[in-house]
Specification:
Two copies of one chain form a homodimer.
Chain A: H1 6-9, E1 18-31, E2 34-40, E3 48-53, H2 59-63, E4 70-79, E5 87-98, H3 114-119, H4 128-151, E6 154-155, E7 161-162, E8 174-176, E9 185-186, E10 189-190, E11 201-203, H5 208-218, E12 220-228, E13 241-250, H6 254-275, H7 277-286, H8 291-300, E14 304-307, H9 308-316, H10 334-345, E15 349-355, E16 371-379, E17 383-390, H11 395-404, H12 413-420, E18 426-432, H13 433-441
Parallel strand pairs in A: 3-5, 6-12, 14-15
Antiparallel strand pairs in A: 1-2, 1-4, 2-3, 4-5, 7-11, 8-11, 9-10, 12-13, 13-18, 15-16, 16-17, 17-18
């Protein structure tokens, strides 16, 4: 008999029809001559209740139908007597695919701490919380692709293994096939000519530079792939491996870039509100009572746009006592960003034109010689969710900046070539996918919004 | 003035209207008092022609409007006099964003060999061929996500950095943050406790095992991410870094798996035929005159399904002289696969139930003790395009196989747990994205269907 998904059955009104479901027992409640099973198959956060007249089944057999077991149940769809569900199944047959010994199965009926669930990341997708998060992660990833596809952007797979540390964005993971016990060293230097790629290679920290190459041909492109930071940070905001979305658009200037970022974020949040209702309600109730309200806040408000310099002035004159002092020329801390968003403007904020010293070499220099056409989008509860800029399109200015910063200009020849041949104004930004996931799920630890987190001392599963 | 994409303008019939385009000069043809510019902006393979009455512009200025330069042109949209295009632009203003010195710009008007273009992978997206390939790559990636999203699958980001070599699928790249000049060695072994993750880690060769964890909770999942092989092969079929799509479905058995694979491939090929007409026609004309015919062949034919054993019999009795001899128990070579598809059946073929010795440990064992529920989908010109199987869901049988093969069962505890707790029949497969791209573009070298190929001695750009 053809299996139906629980998601579809819960919306069915074909009472009396025979149905077949397959899924995992979330809980079992025994009463006199009857047992109530809550079955979940991952298609939706809600369980369907199967009512079992126990005398109709061998006692020994039903003993194995426990929390965690996988079963196939056929029976009639009936209107539910209990509250909380509209339909249930009056079980006729139960086939057990797999048991779960209550002595050893770690996920019993009672709630578990998020910390404990991180230790069993291979099983946590079987909980309501992680079911909801993973379905929402899918929805957000699909919304990213749909947004750009509908606009005519081209998805570009930028390389993961890279020969260049061009962003200088912190520590990188090295990639090698050399025998670590016999590393060839010559003149005190590792001889990478013996390595797989014949040179030193690392895991990428950003697809942007390659994205720019593609934008200078295809016009509008985006990347969506894994990026890596070997930062030894054990915080609730850091992952060694995370996913980034980086659009890059030829002929866009700073204002176009802000418009795109605002439209993009509103689209994603709206998509979540419209497509993830059940999961959002669950997360709203269990983790963040203001979650749905916060999402509507982003959709309903225009983002405030001001310069970094103006932002610093507001913070200085706020009279608010910050842990870190605000000073023109220094990077803003999360507390400053959140003050602007949550206290001062009560709206999402885009800060622009940051001091060039605290921003990357490729950003377009302003005429004043002090600032660059950077933009950071700041969100409530999160702080910076997007960072981007218009890019420096002048070959001379870019080359000068590379030299000022003593970067390896020989290694960057291919990037510099984009400015040498048919250069054009262009702009782009990066959205950390897990930052977005924190925002739309209301979770507070980044390890809980990626299926298998990679952090210092942790690459299990 | 708001820029329009060339794709949209070429379909416009608003003759006489003023338009603005931005893009790169593909060629310039001078005639008396008039110059013809072919402009491309990446939105479509076709150029738009801009007609320039040269006496209206300073001579010095027009000299810089050369092949490769980036320009912004405004002018009236007029019906084209020439052949090959319906509309053109009578230029009123030309702004040069970036020049391209004809002495050094490598992409001149004439055709370039694919080999040469690989040396300048940072610029090759600006050619017709790579524009077409990259737009098609986008279309195929989007079709993958749309296919699964529409069916209710959940996209799972499986980890890139992994602590386990479970597939045993060839050489792996090691990931480390240790100083290669000072690798700590104890008792002849590298001491990985000092490394970032506190253990030996590599780049993943497959997301399948993690995908199975998710399928045992969410039901229907898929991965789509980069995978890696450190194989020292300099062939037209090998990449060190490539993208894989791996669906995994709880409650599916071998036949469901075949149905899903066939439906999926037909969907993708049909999507290409319907959404990439211009690019396909270009590639058909330039690279493979039978390309579109081959794509229709896949959409129009039911895939032939037979066992490996039956396939071997056919090959043995074919009388065909193969380079490698066919023998039950050995892996089929591409020549054998292609013989079955192209000569014998003249249809795509799915071979099933391979000898267990030549397939992975996790495949479900057949009752005969000799074969496993594997399936390979074979395509014309390509050979194997999909490999998959029903998975062994019995804890005991899986554990025995792990022990038989002397695999590290302690490292696999989390994978074995899926069979210990609520196990279920399930099945899945892997589609190498670049294999698909070879098929739908008609290209013959895998380095030409990924933007920035990674191969031995090659991690430039």
């Amino acid at each position: 008999m053809l299996r139906k998904k629980i998601k579809d059955i819960l919306n069915s009104t074909e009472y009396g029809s025979l149905v077949c479901i397959k899924g995992w027992v979330r809980s079992k409640r025994d009463s006199k001559n009857v047992a109530f099973l809550a079955i979940n198959d991952g298609s939706i956060i809600h369980n369907i209740q199967a009512v079992v007249d126990t005398p109709n089944f061998p006692e020994d057999y039903l003993k194995d139908v426990q929390t965690g077991a996988c079963v196939c149940i056929t029976g009639s769809l009936v209107q539910s007597q209990g509250k909380g569900q509209s339909v249930e199944i009056q079980a006729k047959t139960i086939e057990i695919y797999g048991t779960a010994d209550p002595e050893t199965f770690p996920l019993q009926k009672k709630g578990h701490s998020l910390e404990f669930l991180r230790e069993i990341a291979h099983l946590r997708p079987r909980t309501n919380t992680f079911g909801a998060i993973l379905r929402m992660r899918h929805a957000m990833a699909f919304a990213v692709h749909k947004f750009f596809n509908d606009k005519g952007f081209v998805y570009v797979h930028t390389p993961i293994i890279t020969g260049a540390d061009c962003e200088g964005a912190g520590e990188m993971f090295r990639v090698t096939t050399m025998d670590l016990k016999k590393i060839p060293v010559a003149d005190g230097q590792v001889d990478f000519s013996k390595d797989f790629f014949g040179k030193e290679t690392s895991l990428t920290v950003s697809g942007q530079l390659n994205g720019e190459l593609a934008a200078m041909a295809l016009g509008e492109v985006y990347t969506f792939g894994p990026t890596f930071r070997a930062e030894n940070s054990n915080t609730s905001r850091h992952l060694a491996e995370f996913w980034m979305i980086e659009p890059e658009v030829a002929f866009n200037e700073l204002e176009d870039n802000m418009n795109l970022a605002e439209e993009f974020l509103k689209y994603l949040v709206k998509y979540a509100l419209e497509n993830c209702k059940d999961d959002l309600e669950f997360l709203n109730n269990l983790y963040d009572k203001e979650l749905i309200q916060k999402l509507n806040f982003v959709v309903d408000n225009n983002f405030i746009r001001l310069t970094y310099t103006e932002g610093v002035e507001i913070l200085k004159q706020s009279g608010h006592k910050f842990e870190y002092k605000v000073e023109w020329g220094t990077d803003l801390q999360s507390e400053h960003e959140r003050y602007l968003v949550e206290k001062h403007f009560k709206k999402p904020v885009i800060l622009t034109n940051y001091p060039k010293e605290i921003k990357a070499f490729y950003m377009k220099q302003d005429a004043d010689g002090k600032t660059v056409r950077a933009m950071d989008v700041l969100f409530p509860g999160i702080g910076e969710i997007i960072g981007g800029s218009q890019r420096e399109e002048s070959y001379e200015k870019l080359l000068n900046r590379v030299r000022e910063l003593k970067m390896n200009e020989k290694e960057l020849w291919w990037y510099l070539d984009t400015r040498k041949f048919g250069t054009a104004p262009h702009a782009g930004f990066g959205l950390g996918f897990e930052r977005l996931m924190l925002f739309v799920t209301g979770m507070s630890n980044i390890r809980d919004v990626i299926p298998f987190p990679r952090t210092p001392q942790n690459a299990e599963f």
